[in-house]
Amino acid sequence: MEEDLMHDIKCVLIDKEQIRKKCEELGKKISSDYCGKKPLFVCVLKGSVMFYADLLRNINIDCELEFMAISSYGTGKSSSGEVKVVKDLNTKVEGRDIIIVEDIVDTGITLMYLVNLLKCRGASSVEICALLDKIERREREVYPKYKGFVIPNEFVVGYGLDFNEKYRNLPEVCILNS
Ligand code: IMP
Predict the structure, then answer these.
(1) How many CB atoms lie within 10 A of CB 71?
(2) How far is 129 from 136, CA to CA, in rounded Å?
(3) What is residue 177's DSSP assignment?
(4) Strand pairing partners for 70?
(5) C-beta of residue 100 within 8 angstroms of C-beta of residue 42
(6) Distances (CA, A) of 157 to 59, 113, 168
(7) Mean pLDDT for back-to-back runs of 10 residues, the chain (178 residues)
(8) Which of 84, 86, 101, 104 is the best mutation target for the ligand 1 pocket, counting ligand atoms within 8 Å of the beta carbon and taking the most?
(9) How far apart (Å, rounded) are the C-alpha atoms in residues 95 and 167?
(10) How far apart are the CA of 124 and the centre of ligand 1, in A?
(11) What residues contact residue 167 under an 8 Å CB cut-off, 6+ apart?
């Protein structure tokens, strides 16, 4: 990896093999739980893009893919607390079984907003699949039905996650130097 990208990285928290196995495991579980249904997988851009692509390759039932962009973090490491839809879905969610695919649940503010929004629009069910859960930081009652790893209260980057738009292309989840 480029020296420049690794310069501010303290260590790798979750490596490629752990991610690969987790996507397989979650994909199998979701495919079995939603067998006979046609869920709509909503990718929350941009942070979830790597996880979404790897997870969906492990889903073996009929399903549809959609993308949404939400902003709650201006720049830097702390949430502004203000949630905004930056890019909306291109499909109706009424009567659909939705699985929101998210990179990380931190305070839970973003997901609480999104779950409520999709329910208000008439979704039959809304569940969350999150790769990472920073449970210590939770401020809202948001509990992903499917989750990859519970992580400590550290700022992480890589595998889609950024710090000021940098590091998203690292293939592993890494802890950033503070
Ligand atoms: P929440 O609304 O506080 O739960 O924040 C969720 C969003 O904050 C995630 O989708 C990420 O985009 C971002 N976020 C939270 N923690 C981190 C982190 O450790 N690294 C990078 N982004 C983070």
Answers:
(1) 15
(2) 18
(3) P
(4) 85
(5) yes
(6) 25, 23, 7
(7) 78 98 98 98 97 98 97 64 90 97 95 96 98 94 96 96 95 93
(8) 104
(9) 37
(10) 27
(11) 5, 9, 157, 158, 161, 174, 176
Q: Is the C-beta atom of 39 inside 6 A of ligand 1?
A: no
Helix (H) or strand (E) holding 149: strand 146-150
CB of residue 170 inside a 6 A radius of ligand 1: no
> What pLDDT is recorded for position 73?
57
67: its two tokens: 């993308």
The residues that are catalytic are 106
Sequence letter at residue 135: I
Put simply, whether the predicted model's pTM sits higher than 0.90 gets the answer yes
Phi, psi of 22 (to 5 degrees): -65, -40
Q: Torsion over CA of 149, 155, 156 and 160, rounded to 10 degrees? A: 100
Determine the distance separating the centroid of ligand 1 and the alpha carbon of 30, expressed in angstroms.
23
